[in-house]
């Protein structure tokens, strides 16, 4: 029996044992999942990047050729997307050590963040989220010296930010639990999908949190729709104070100031959609 077979059998035995211990208690199930994750073998950076590359070969976006870099801590890699192969349903996508030979863009992160994205514990766009462009994010993107950021390249980069880093089909984002979030703009958030003219995400405002408290965050040049799906939050929209509860949605027009906070005892949750020119 080789090492991988022993690890697989051990993992299956652990899962069976956890199932017996957990029963139907959701909190116990979450603790058991965390324990199983901690006991699972840790993939190397190279193994995880190969996993992303192998998965991306089946993605429709892989039909469009592009080369980009990835830096994980001090390790540098190149991903080359050659395009769809006529005789198969897969695209030719390769991974090699070292940065690209020609100037292009690159993602940079650390091994811990890469592992969270690989396991689906953190969505790539959530990892990239920022309130201000100067803020730190655990997954970020930059250009090599000499690269020209054309509108076509920027659009392709944005698509890759989701599709390359989201494994599986259909592409699924986990939300509804604080452990999948990062604190952005003063609240907990999971970012779903971005493209030109459209942004979407899930938010959670815990008691005491204040979203867009900084006046510099309170206006956007495009419209938004805030949809409350659980609990309630307090808001000030265009200078008007309003409590928003589950089952309510509010439209926020371009240039209208808005901030939200939670003066209650339970989290308020919902979905945010931003759309239109500039979104």
Q: How do the SSEs run, as a string of H and E?
A: HHHEEEEHHEHEEEEEEEEEE
Q: What is the C-alpha radius of gyration, as a whole number of Å?
A: 21 Å
Most strands sheet = 6 strands, antiparallel
Strand residues, percent: 25-35%
Structure description:
- This protein is of the alpha+beta class and 279 residues long.
- It folds into 2 domains: 45-163, Nonspecific Lipid-transfer Protein, Chain A (2-Layer Sandwich), CATH 3.30.1050; 178-275, Jelly Rolls (Sandwich), CATH 2.60.120.
- Helices cover 26% and strands 32% of the residues.
- The strands form 3 sheets. The protein has a 6-stranded antiparallel β-sheet. A 5-stranded mixed β-sheet has the order 3-2-1-4-5.
- A hairpin with a 2-residue loop joins strand 6 and strand 7.
- Helix 1 (3-22) packs antiparallel against helix 2 (26-39) and helix 3 packs across helix 4 (111-118).
- It starts with a helix and ends with a strand.
- 26% of the residues are buried.
Task: Summarize the structure in short.
The chain has helices spanning 3-22, 26-39, 45-56, 111-118, 124-128, 151-163, and strands at 66-72, 75-84, 91-97, 105-109, 140-143, 182-184, 187-195, 198-205, 210-211, 224-230, 232-237, 240-245, 249-252, 258-261, 268-275. It has 279 residues and is of the alpha+beta class. The radius of gyration is 21 Å and the shape is elongated.
């Amino acid at each position: 029996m080789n090492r991988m077979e022993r690890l697989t059998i051990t993992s299956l035995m652990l899962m069976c044992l956890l199932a017996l211990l957990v029963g139907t208690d959701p909190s116990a199930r979450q603790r058991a999942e965390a324990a199983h994750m901690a006991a699972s073998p840790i993939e190397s950076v190279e193994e995880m990047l190969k996993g992303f590359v192998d998965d991306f070969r089946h993605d429709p976006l892989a039909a469009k050729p592009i080369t980009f870099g990835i830096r994980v801590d001090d390790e540098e890699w190149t991903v080359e997307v050659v395009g769809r192969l006529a005789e198969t349903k897969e695209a030719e996508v390769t991974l090699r050590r070292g940065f690209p030979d020609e100037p292009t863009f690159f993602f940079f992160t650390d091994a811990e963040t890469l592992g969270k994205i690989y396991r689906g514990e953190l969505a790539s766009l959530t990892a990239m989220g920022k309130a201000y462009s100067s803020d730190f994010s655990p997954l970020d993107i930059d250009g090599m010296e000499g690269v020209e950021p054309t509108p076509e390249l920027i659009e392709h980069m944005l698509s890759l930010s989701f599709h390359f880093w989201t494994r599986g089909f259909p592409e699924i984002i986990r939300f509804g639990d604080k452990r999948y979030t990062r604190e952005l703009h003063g609240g907990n958030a999971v970012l779903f999908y971005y493209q030109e003219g459209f942004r979407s995400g899930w938010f959670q405002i815990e008691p005491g949190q204040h979203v867009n408290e900084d006046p510099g965050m309170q206006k956007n040049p495009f419209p938004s729709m805030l949809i409350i799906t659980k609990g309630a939050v307090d808001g000030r929209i265009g200078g008007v104070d309003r409590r928003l509860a589950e089952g309510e949605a509010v439209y926020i027009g371009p240039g209208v100031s808005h901030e939200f906070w939670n003066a209650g005892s339970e989290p308020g949750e919902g979905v945010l959609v931003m759309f239109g020119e500039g979104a």
